Automatic annotation (TrEMBL):
Gene3D superfamilies, per database record: NADP-dependent oxidoreductase domain
Protein name: NAD(P)H-dependent 6'-deoxychalcone synthase
Tree of life domain: Eukaryota
Species in which this protein is naturally found: Cicer arietinum (Chickpea)
Keyword Kinase part of the UniProt annotation: no
Gene Ontology annotations of biological process type: secondary metabolite biosynthetic process
Active site residues of this protein: 58
PANTHER family: ALDO/KETO REDUCTASE (PTHR11732)
């Protein structure tokens, strides 16, 4: 199949009005994956992916960087500027004085001169140190949102990143952020899928010009148990009627909502399948069925035990 033309959205608060391709390849590690991140990213570039979602905590920045160097060597892309690369700061670096050094470290590991987008991975701070997952609640200290954001603004001004954003921020936290930001967040990356549609948060972000990037768009997350969308009989019927897969229905719905999304597949076929969603549409009747899907958050938080107030009861 030929590489489809992937639509893009403009990040309004970015330097130079950077454009983000609506679909990105997720790179969060999975124990079951047999394909390496380097091979997966290289294959994705061959297939037409131009947007990659990494994070310091995923331990994949080096492999993503190696794949980009290889793609340049092979002539698959003529310049790094053709790619949109996101990374995220881990909670151990959510201290104002650690932000610039942490971003510089990510850039060195990725062998890049700049990122397209850097996100605060979680609105939580722990003592500086090694990445631990899940986060021990006893290690949490106060999250200085204003100090951290001011340092991120500095990163954009220094040209270390084209855009800055948040991840896992509730409306309440975004409101606080917007109250002092001189560069508003370009993106809020949060869980959105057919089983957790996030209407309110999306409406708020739209009003404020913040692009929403959906993570776990197939609701796979860390859980490999029963899946509210991938095992959903109604969605199976709907997929059969369109001659598509359930995954494609999930991604097409996100696209029709005006969202961007990061989906992870390291499998050649499924990676390609996930790109084939731009030349057909869902019907009114499909939307009626989709509105009946039970809603429940999948990713409840990165801590052990879970925090009561992480989502501000939204
Ligand atoms: P996901 O993309 O919803 O699901 C990934 C799983 O679905 C993989 O096991 C993959 O297996 C499978 N898959 C992919 N395409 C498929 C298809 N067409 N048919 C059937 N199965 C398919 O979940 P995710 O990895 O949790 O989320 C995606 C990305 O979002 C992550 O990799 C990460 O970059 C980001 N994320 C961010 C946060 C945050 O806090 N900001 C949290 C979670 C995730 P195969 O590889 O075998 O195809």
């Amino acid at each position: 199949m030929t590489a489809p033309k992937v639509p893009e959205v403009v990040l309004s608060s970015s330097s130079g009005q950077r454009k983000m391709p609506v679909i990105g390849l997720g790179t969060a590690p999975e124990a079951i994956s047999k394909v390496t991140t380097k091979d997966a990213v290289l294959e994705a570039i061959k297939q037409g992916y131009r947007h990659f979602d990494a994070a310091a905590a995923y331990g994949v920045e080096q492999s993503v960087g190696e794949a980009i160097s290889e793609a340049l060597k092979l002539g698959l892309i003529s310049s790094r500027d053709e790619l949109f690369v996101t990374s995220k700061l881990w909670v151990t670096d959510n201290h104002p004085e650690l932000i610039v050094p942490a971003l510089k470290k990510s850039l060195r590991t990725l062998q890049l001169e700049y990122l397209d987008l850097i996100l605060i991975h979680w609105p939580i701070t722990t003592k500086p140190g090694e990445v631990k997952y899940p986060i021990e609640v006893s290690e949490i200290v106060e999250f200085d949102m204003k100090g951290v954001w001011t340092s991120l603004e500095e990163c954009q001004k220094l040209g270390l990143t084209k855009a800055i954003g948040a991840s896992n921020f509730s409306i309440k936290k975004l409101e606080k952020l917007l109250s002092f930001a001189t560069i508003p967040p370009a993106v809020n990356q949060v869980e959105v899928n057919l089983g957790w549609q996030q209407q309110k948060l999306r409406a708020f972000c739209k009003e404020k010009g913040i692009i929403v990037t959906a993570f776990s768009p197939l609701r796979k997350g860390a859980s490999r148990g029963a899946n509210l969308v991938m095992d959903n009989d109604i969605l199976k019927e709907l997929a059969d009627a369109h001659g598509k897969t359930i995954a494609q229905i999930c991604l097409r719905w996100l696209y029709e909502q005006g969202l961007t999304f990061v989906v992870k597949s390291y499998d050649k076929e499924r990676m390609n399948q996930n790109l084939q969603i731009f030349d057909w549409s869902l019907t009114k009747d499909d939307y009626k069925k989709i509105s009946e899907i039970h809603q429940e958050r999948l990713i409840k938080g990165p801590t052990k035990p879970l925090l009561d107030d992480l989502w501000d009861e939204e």
